Amino acid sequence: MRACLLVRRLLNAYGMRNMLSIVLVLAACGTDVNTMPDDQGSTHPDAGAGSTHVADAMPIPPDGIPPNLTPCEQAVYHSDLPWIQTFVFDVSCTTKCHGDTPPAAGMSLRPGEARAAMVNVVSHHDPSWMRVVPGSPARSMLMVQIGGEPGPQLEGLMPWGMPKLCDEKIDTIRRWIAAGANP
Prior knowledge:
single chain, mainly alpha, 7 helices
């Protein structure tokens, strides 16, 4: 379903002349992140080890990322903290809780502070979890709290009192963590 929507958006942006290229890119790279249970209801075989398969970001077209895309549409091209900071943390997290002084749960998501507050830091919600485990979205509490991975029972999803992040933004955060949660 998401692949069809993505193809439609790319066709609108680039026209029919590039349809074959778009289809080939989608076939070669994939568009979905595999974190769903299999037919028997068990989780991905590597989920316990924290190595959930994560699809790469879409390659940036030769002409650049199409203009006038929504942040959710832009997200498929990203796996980098600067984009996450601008289009996720700054608009959904720092406006209410994690930009305050002191920040909620001691986790500042302000620019220049977010990575240090999350990577290899014990979760305030469940001390047996880390907020972000580089290379392991499945073992990162951030992914649980935004609804991207199963984990400990929560009172609600982040961001509190706001709509759930779109799947594309969640997948961008997943890719960032899987790639090592680099600055």
